[in-house]
Amino acid sequence: MDLPIGEEIARRRKHRGVTQQELAAFMNVSKASVSKWETGQTYPDITSLPLLAAYFDCSVDELLILDSQLSPKEIQRIYQLLKDAFQTKTPTEVLALAQSFTKRYYSCYPFLLQMGSFYLNHWDLLPDVPVEGVPKGQTYEDALMEAKKNTYLKEAETLYQRIMDQGDSELAQQAKQIDAYCLLMRNKPEEVLAILGTKTLSFLPSEPLIAAAFQQNNQLQQAEIVTQSAIYQYLIIFMSLLTNYLAMLTQDEEQLEKTYARGLALSESFQLAELHPLSLLNFLAAGMVSFAALGKESLLLQALTLYVKTLEATPEEIVLKGDDYFNSIDEWISELELGSQIPRNSGSVKKQFLAIAQLPPLFEPYQEKPPFKELFQRLSNLAEQVSNSQRSDSHE
């Protein structure tokens, strides 16, 4: 990463009214060395930085123009830069860039939280790692992906542990929960239970109290923003719980169908296909897998039809946003850690959802069967469009 130290040395030297020769004499170097510093051809030796900082009466960080903390907007910008980098740089270059940012802002805990999210959401796109033996019954490709997942999720866990040790209580709580998710992905259930406990605790959400306080203070707009943003978050969380529940119910067909029907009704009521298509797609994917496993053809067809329709309507660039019901949350969304962007590149997300609906052997008996054949063809066409779009973006 380029450092603008040369420009800062020149600015401070001129502000003091000293010549390059005078600064060189103080630093016991040649005038040519100072000139090269200021033009960016070379950097001062690291051991010279404290002396330079003392000469200009500033800190080393000020000399390097390094602020150890980032604003939310700066975090969003860096995260977007890293996501976009996969389109133009090699996985090794992207990893080096991510590691460089992490080292530079290692004391900015909100940023470290998002860098953990970066590893969590992009481990499969990062460089391959050595595979130490292939377990019996597993292909080399499967072993490679498992090794990559473990390597990069451990990187994320290291960052989360630092936040839990050093960050404030709110950040530490977030880090603990995402750390547990990483452990779950690495098949460490006992460690998850050790971190989070084994029972659901009763809780009183703070949002209704905050909204009521705003309302009593006659700050009605703020009360509405807090209430709407809370409903929005709990809606997405509730859909996620229903999605996980669907995957548990292959031994209870009646409960499975009830859960699917209620989740679908909730989705339709809040127009999730437009508001938050990812939560609906996850829910439908879980339903499709369960229905295919149980041979429930009519329900599978219903879920697959909505799945294809939702994927086709999902825009190229997926962003978080309100709608005509959640009409007061856009400012709140803009202030989130990542703003309106989703954690992973939109094209990669769509490819994942397309793969879910095409690859599982559970769907093979339906591939050539009307009307499933037409739906799978539409998915194939969409997959080709996404791939062409990504190739076009990478060449721009």
Q: What is the overall silhouette?
A: globular
What is the overall pLDDT average? 91
Tally the beta strands.
Answer: 0
Terminal residue distance: 23 Å
Largest sheet: none
- Judged by helices, strands and strand pairing, the structural class is mainly alpha
Q: What portion of residues belong to β-strands?
A: under 5%
In the predicted model, the low-confidence regions spanning at least 5 consecutive residues are none
Give me the number of helical elements. 20
What is the helical fraction, as a range of percent? 55-70%
Task: Output the helix-strand order.
Answer: HHHHHHHHHHHHHHHHHHHH
Radius of gyration using CA atoms only:
26 Å
Describe this structure in words.
With 396 residues, this protein is mostly helical. Helices cover 69% and strands 0% of the residues. The protein contains 20 helices and no strands. Helix 1 (5-16) packs across helix 3 (31-39), helix 2 (20-27) packs across helix 3 and helix 14 runs antiparallel to helix 16 (277-294). The radius of gyration is 26 Å and the shape is globular.
What are the salient characteristics of this protein?
mainly alpha; single chain; 396 residues
Itemize the secondary structure elements and their pairings:
Blueprint: H1 5-16, H2 20-27, H3 31-39, H4 49-55, H5 60-64, H6 72-85, H7 91-104, H8 109-122, H9 140-166, H10 169-185, H11 189-196, H12 207-216, H13 220-248, H14 253-269, H15 272-275, H16 277-294, H17 297-313, H18 330-334, H19 346-358, H20 372-395
